[in-house]
Specification:
1% strand; mainly alpha; two-stranded antiparallel ribbon; 68% helix; 2 strands
């Protein structure tokens, strides 16, 4: 069978054109950068993230014990339990608690979001995609277990994510079903995988800001959107609240990518836990390459402001972790 090969980088209208036109205005720069938090908004995010990550790690460990076929499960656990910030599952838990839900109702779905994210990292590192040998400060999965096991470990994590979300969640069935659908839509051919395809097709080509945003709205932001929306769904939030947190997750996803691009230029391999300068070496277009470091830093600050806008009207104390999460991610990009 002859498969058509794309000879030019897809335009931003490639896939989901009408939705892309709606997405972009929602994440454009706001008029002012976020203000420094006042004393009433002081919050120990480091402690909050550490405690949430500890509980997520324990839940992941319980969800995926080592069992036959042992080498496959060992490969799955190797990447899933590697040290990480756990931004996506923490986002799910914080969004659930924002609308008055209990962490336990959202934990299986939060773990599922992390499983899907880790699958994408395993596959992203493969020689046929980004060809990176280091992830989270240690050898990538295909280096530790071989390419075949890495592919299958990623596939198995992807499948198990939906099984775990559906079987382990103790919540009304309609909420569970909707959350599973959210994760599937965010991951598939119109979500994360679409972003991966666009990224591959554009490698080594000059692209503009709109195309770059199109790549990362799919590759990074889609799963962030789903993680945030699922938290509100599992917490029993209203439809308006689901959509507001979906928009928050979308902005947070773009913010993560802008910061990641900046850090790829300004940090060392040891600091990053992955190969520094990889994007430039692969000929990828990044925010610093397109805009310059200072302008990319301003975009990060402006995205924080947009994220905080989506939290207005929620209980201020419950929204505090999400406000500070956006600020924390932006602060990672500081390079002076």
């Amino acid at each position: 069978m002859n498969v058509p090969v794309m000879t030019t980088c897809p335009s931003p209208s490639w896939s989901l054109a009408s939705r892309r036109r709606r997405f972009l205005p929602a994440v454009r720069c706001v008029s002012s950068v976020p203000k420094v938090a006042d004393e009433a908004d002081l919050f120990d995010l480091k402690q909050y993230m550490a405690e949430k990550a500890r509980r997520v790690d324990a839940a992941l460990d319980r969800a995926l014990p080592l069992r036959p076929p042992e080498r496959l499960f060992a490969a799955m656990r190797y990447s899933l339990l590697s040290p990480g910030k756990r931004v996506r599952p923490v986002l799910t838990l914080a969004a659930c608690e924002l609308v008055g839900g209990d962490e336990s109702a959202a934990m299986p779905v939060a773990c599922a979001a992390e499983m899907i994210h880790v699958m994408s990292l395993i596959h992203d590192d493969l020689p046929c995609i980004d060809n990176d040998d280091v992830r989270r400060g240690r050898p990538a999965n295909h280096v530790a277990f071989g390419e075949g096991f890495a592919v299958l470990a990623g596939d198995a994590l992807h499948c198990f994510a939906y099984e775990h979300a559906a079987a382990a969640t103790r919540a009304p069935p309609d909420r569970v079903l909707r959350a599973v659908a959210e994760l599937g839509r965010a991951t598939g051919a119109e979500g994360l995988l679409a972003g991966q395809i666009m990224d591959i097709e554009c490698e080594g080509k000059e692209v503009g800001l709109e195309v770059l945003e199109g790549i990362h709205l799919h590759k990074t932001a889609k799963l962030m959107e789903a993680a945030a929306a699922c938290g509100v769904i599992m917490g029993g939030g209203r439809e308006e609240e689901v959509e507001r947190l979906r928009r928050y997750g979308r902005v947070l996803g773009l913010l993560c990518q802008v910061v990641d691009d900046i850090m790829d230029v300004t940090k060392t391999t040891e600091e990053l836990g992955k190969t520094a300068g990889k994007d430039s070496a692969c000929g990828k277009t990044t925010y610093p390459k397109l805009l310059g470091l200072e302008a990319a830093g301003r975009v990060a600050e402006e995205l924080v402001g947009k994220a905080e806008e989506e939290l207005q009207g929620f209980d201020r104390n419950r929204a505090r972790p999400l406000r500070h999460l956006a600020r924390y991610i932006a602060n990672l990009a500081r390079y002076n």
